[in-house]
Amino acid sequence: MQYPVYRPRRLRQNENFRRLIRETQLRVDNLVMPFFVREGKGVKIPIPSMPGNFQFSVDNLLKEIKQVKDLGIPAILLFGIPRKKDELGSQAYAKDGIIQKAVSNIKEKVPDILVITDVCLCEYTAHGHCGVVKKTARGRSCASGFEIDNDATLELLANVSLSYAKAGADIVAPSAMMDGEVKAIRQALDNAGYPNTPIMAYSAKYASSFYGPFRQAAESPPQFGDRKSYQMDIANAKEALQEVNLDILEGADIIMVKPALAYLDIIRRVKEKFCLPLAAYNVSGEFSMVKACGKLGWIDEQKIILEILTSIKRAGADIIITYHAKEAAEMLE
Ligand code: PBG
Q1: 185 in a domain, yes or no?
Q2: For a pocket test of ligand 1, which of 175, 177, 229 has the largest count of ligand atoms closer than 8 A to its C-beta?
Q3: Which are the contacts of 60, defined by CB distance < 8 A and separation ≥ 6?
Q4: Mind listing the pLDDT tens digit for each residue in 180-237?
Q5: Index of the ligand 1 atom closest to the CA of residue 285
Q6: Residue 307 counted as domain residue
Q7: Does an H or E element contain 36, and which?
């Protein structure tokens, strides 16, 4: 033969050989399953844009979480739909808020699963923004006539985090993309006697259209404007490294890139530069596209799910947050 030969070439047909040299192992241990929880009893409302996902009341959520635990999934991520919304998202930090109730119930009845709570205001504010909204003069620097008051929001996010920690959350996960939120939350937790509650920071969170189905699920679309003033420009990569770096300096314990599939390059770059555990969020739009195509019979849904999740892992994610967690766990069993 005239050219250098890669000998395993032939052996690739052999499953045992493939197993032997496989570089990436997708495991159930890597998966986090998100859930939406709301008030009431016996509630299980299907989310039309996210087949197989529901808004659960706490009683039904507990049943669901038992299943997730039995499948070997180590952690869940909770989003709340409050009974009422207001300007400052007060139900997010109310003692009897929906997440607070859900977490304390889970900790009592299904103690052996890690509970991560998303920390944001958008599901709780009447305007649907992730922070406090203040009016400004319309002008060249502000065409919309409103802006997000970053610093006023920090105190609220710190209150939310602390109240989740008090309810028993194992990890808090700020996703509002306010500058300084990790530091504000770390200080609040430390001062109140929760120095060991880790922060999983949505560090590089893009202003993505892939969140569309989620906003229906969480009833959280912004009522005016968009999130571009606080979430990242989809075209930027170096900025992601800067955002991650700042969050680490502020005290993040786990960093995150979101969305995942359209941002595998970002996952890879963050992984190469930083040493903290890295999470990637396989978001609602990525999930729903697979479900829609699967329903139409245009793709082999099961294989595509494992291919996507394996790719996210191969890119460098240690933790994958995904609505496919249950079905993936079943396939990986
Ligand atoms: C809250 C939040 C969002 C998502 C996770 N946390 C929505 C948003 O920023 O608009 C999106 C998750 C998904 O699409 O699956 N800020």
Answers
A1: yes
A2: 175
A3: 42, 43, 44, 54
A4: 999 999 999 999 999 999 999 999 999 999 999 999 888 888 888 888 888 999 999 9
A5: 14
A6: no
A7: strand 31-38
Establish if 290 belongs to a structural domain: no
**Domain count within the chain:** 1
What is the secondary structure of 215-282 as a DSSP string? HHHTT---SSS-STTTSBPTT-SHHHHHHHHHHHHHT-SEEEEESSGGGHHHHHHHHHH--S-EEEEE
Residue closest by Cα to atom 11 of ligand 1? 211
Q: Are strands 200-205 and 254-258 parallel, antiparallel or unpaired?
A: parallel
Q: What whole-number distance in Å separates Cα of residue 231 and Cα of residue 43? A: 33
Distance (angstroms) between ligand 1 centre and the Cα of 268 equals: 21
Nearest CA to ligand 1 atom 5: 175
Q: Is 76 helix (H, G, I), strand (E, B) or coil?
A: strand
**Host domain of residue 60:** 28-256+272-278
CATH assignment of the domain containing 144:
3.20.20.70
Asked whether the predicted pLDDT for residue 113 surpasses 80, the reply is yes
pLDDT digits (tens, 9 = 90+) for 42-78: 999 999 999 999 999 999 999 999 999 999 999 999 9
Spell out which residues line ligand 1, taking CB within 6 angstroms: 118, 120, 122, 130, 175, 211, 214-215, 227, 283-284
Ligand 1 centre to CA of 79 (Å) is 9
With 90 as the cut, is the pLDDT of residue 13 above it? no
Q: How many residues make up the chain in this entry? A: 333
User: How far, in Å, from the CA of 175 to the mean position of ligand 1?
Assistant: 7
> Amino acid letter at 159?
N
Say which amino acid occupies 88.
Answer: L
Residue nearest ligand 1's atom 7 by CA: 211
The reply to whether 211 falls in a domain is yes
Cis peptide, bond prior to residue 221, ω within 30 of zero: no
- Positions annotated as catalytic residues are 205, 258
